[in-house]
Design goal:
single chain; about 230 residues; alpha+beta; 5 helices; about 45% strand
């Protein structure tokens, strides 16, 4: 990563390929079901070949040619807020999503999902990803699912993860089927639940995995709500 003097600038967005856009929107909607958007912003600073998104909730660096969308959502009936970030390259079928829950949303997420810890969240998220793929293609099947522990963020939080590989999980525009890979991680940062997902067509997933590792390593979660 190059470290040049940063300069404030808005991130210019273009539309990705339509299938990817639809895929991202559907996954995002499933992740924030029951929440309404409060605001949307893509303000960033440029640092060499990377963009740095830095706000009151988190700090994250990603390649300058990648797209980024951020928004805050709120459950009006139950309370609580969720900060959402999704990052994806312009020429690959893969994406990274990061969600940070405030204290109220964190508590309600565990209660409503009847979940005991981050490991249960990661496993459930991987299962939900497969269920979503299966709805689109009944011939899809699980090749493997692996659960484990990893460090996440600059503060090296202990995250629990589940990684799933799905046979015939993605159908391209020419009718060919490809395998899909997805890894989901969850951890608690003070009072905040953090959920991270990285998914894509297996070849594109592997091609962008090093970028994901860098984003995961440099991520700083600063805290959110609860004060």
């Amino acid at each position: 990563m190059s470290h040049h003097e940063s300069c404030d600038r808005p991130l210019k967005l273009g539309l990705p390929r339509l299938p990817l856009l639809i895929f991202l929107l559907i996954v995002c909607i499933s992740l924030i079901l029951g929440f309404s958007i409060i605001y949307f912003t893509v303000a960033t600073n440029r640092r060499g070949d990377y963009l740095s998104l830095n706000n009151d909730v988190l700090s994250v660096n990603f390649p300058i040619n990648w797209f980024a969308l951020t928004w805050e959502s709120s459950n009006r009936s139950l309370g609580g807020k969720v900060f959402n970030l999704i990052i994806f390259p312009p020429d690959k079928f893969s994406a990274i999503s990061i969600q940070v829950y405030d204290k109220v949303a964190t508590e309600r997420f565990f209660i409503e999902g009847n979940l005991s810890d981050p490991a249960a969240i990661a496993y459930r998220d991987a299962q939900r990803f497969f269920d979503w793929i299966l709805e689109k293609n009944e011939n899809a099947s699980v090749i493997s699912i692996v659960n484990g522990t990893a460090y996440a963020g600059a503060s090296r939080n202990i995250a629990r993860y589940s990684k799933i590989i799905i046979r015939n999980g993605f159908k391209s525009s020419d009718g060919k089927y490809y395998n899909m890979s997805c890894i989901v991680l969850s951890f608690i940062n003070e009072d905040n639940l953090v959920r991270i997902a990285f998914w894509g067509k297996q070849e594109d997933y592997e091609d962008t995995f090093e970028v994901f590792k860098g984003i995961l390593s440099d991520l700083v979660v600063k805290g959110y709500g609860g004060k």
